[in-house]
Amino acid sequence: xxxxxxxxxxxxxxxxxxxxxxxxxxxxxxxxxxxxxxxxxxxxxxxxxxxxxxxxxxxxxxxxxxxxxxxxxxxxxxxxxxxxxxxxxxxxxxxxxxxxxxxxxxxxxxxxxxxxxxxxxxxxxxxxxxxxxxxxxxxxxxxxxxxxxxxxxxxxxxxxxxxxxxxxxxxxxxxxxxxxxxxxxxxxxxxxxxxxxxxxxxxxxxxxxxxxxxxxxxxxxxxxxxxxxxxxxxxxxxxxxxxxxxxxxxxxxxxxxxxxxxxxxxxxxxxxxxxxxxxxxxxxxxxxxxxxxxxxxxxxxxxxxxxxxxxxxxxxxxxxxxxxxxxxxxxxxxxxxxxxxxxxxxxxxxxxxxxxxxxxxxxxxxxxxxxxxxxx
Amino acid sequence: xxxxxxxxxxxxxxxxxxxxxxxxxxxxxxxxxxxxxxxxxxxxxxxxxxxxxxxxxxxxxxxxxxxxxxxxxxxxxxxxxxxxxxxxxxxxxxxxxxxxxxxxxxxxxxxxxxxxxxxxxxxxxxxxxxxxxxxxxxxxxxxxxxxxxxxxxxxxxxxxxxxxxxxxxxxxxxxxxxxxxxxxxxxxxxxxxxxxxxxxxxxxxxxxxxxxxxxxxxxxxxxxxxxxxxxxxxxxxxxxxxxxxxxxxxxxxxxxxxxxxxxxxxxxxxxxxxxxxxxxxxxxxxxxxxxxxxxxxxxxx
Lengths: 376, 301
What we know:
The structure holds 2 protein chains of 2 kinds. Chain A is α+β, with helices and mostly antiparallel strands. Chain A is built from 8 helices and 20 strands. Chain A is globular and about 80 Å long. Chain B has a domain of 191 residues: MetI-like fold, CATH 1.10.3720. Chain B is mainly alpha-helical. Chains A and B meet through strand 6 and helix 2 of A and helix 9 and helix 10 of B.
């Protein structure tokens, strides 16, 4: 059952972490640009963006390894400026894991607890608890060099969790794992986060990772946050063309607004003979405005037969490429304008009589509600 | 094809033999000669010892060898005192070298990457002038009317000339100065390889910078610390030039003892016995180090 958890919609909720107009410059380069952001207690929050977008700098400022050039960061109401990393109730799981090579697994996990002067018996208990949590009880005496990549990742996680920090920061936590393991670990991370009720802030460039795990995603570009929303909204209601293209696959058709007819936008494009009909009532547009229409590949249908006269949004082209992925088949269709559209179709049946083939003339259609209009 | 594989096999057998050949010719054979001389008796002759090896009378040659010289080393406590004093001076020097060398190596490893090779070159730079000249230069600095006294008097820190030349302090200064590159380079090599995120991880887990230094940096730099310490300690124990030029007549070191037996007393057999003793003293720490290292590798492959 999905928990209903959305403190960001509650105007009275107090954020746990608050970035207030934070800027970070390295020399002339602007890594983070006047950024404000609230993260709430218990959230699984993802910072998503291409490399160099400032997401890692943002996280390092939260950990205390970098200080903001301007603005301030508060944690549970406390101003963090001037607080060194070793006094922050925040722990980090590093991308490289940064396990201490001269310490065994249990010594690594106990390291942070020892710094707090916790009694020995209590440390042993906590280390045991953490080892159970990440299922590494049998490897307690091993050294990091004797572990596999997945095991090291778990040790790093256990070490960062051991102090029960208010916030756990995870820098590309699954980046070094292979695909199968990554998927399993994603769900494990979610379970652990749920179980401990801790706030997780994850930095990633992998949109799939962000979509699966996060309660909310902040998409970053050039040191700014371009959209903060839950995964569904990011995918279905991207605010800009950058987000639409960065998160998932998308087909972009460029055109001009003709006007509104019974609540639906009519857009003239070079790609289709008849103007397209788009259902995106929230957009405020004016006639003649240049826009981009974004349609996800799975929301388009491909067929050989000419659609009936009642059909809207019909594009014609020829099959340029076919990629069979098992669960999906990807068609790359070339329109008369030279644009290439990507259309996917779920392989619901094992056998298809006379499947669509290379170079065939095909029709692509999509519903008015399948597309999003992005102002250029 | 066959010849090819033959030369290949020959070369693959010969290549590992090269270091053994080198050690055999330039270490093992001279060592055996010195060992033999140490078992001989001194004589007023050319060469100044008996018996001299002759193929015709091997039995008489072997019967002429004995342990008299080693017995003398054990009887006269001068040699024991000289040995202990050498080990003490070398040990203190090594600690001083670590204290001076570690910050230098750490600073170099932390310097921007483009400056590092220049810094390494600067550390080696003193080798480009003669060792002897550099030690003589220290006499000019440390002597009572020397540069150090002048500088301190100029600053008003002292009114009397300071007595530092011909004391053990001068020997420490000389050894630290001369051996510093041998300490800095191995330390730099291990510190430079160290992953900075390990320190960040330690800070993140609540360890202050000072504690992180002792719990992370120092243990991980241990191979460099041991290598640098051995590279300095071993030659420092047998050091002759620095105590002779800077240490005055009071400073007792086994290297000087060896020199005086050899050149002043012309007692080659006794000098050789001292040399063998010195060798044994120096082999011990290396064996211990190898043992420790082997155990470390065993527990952590």
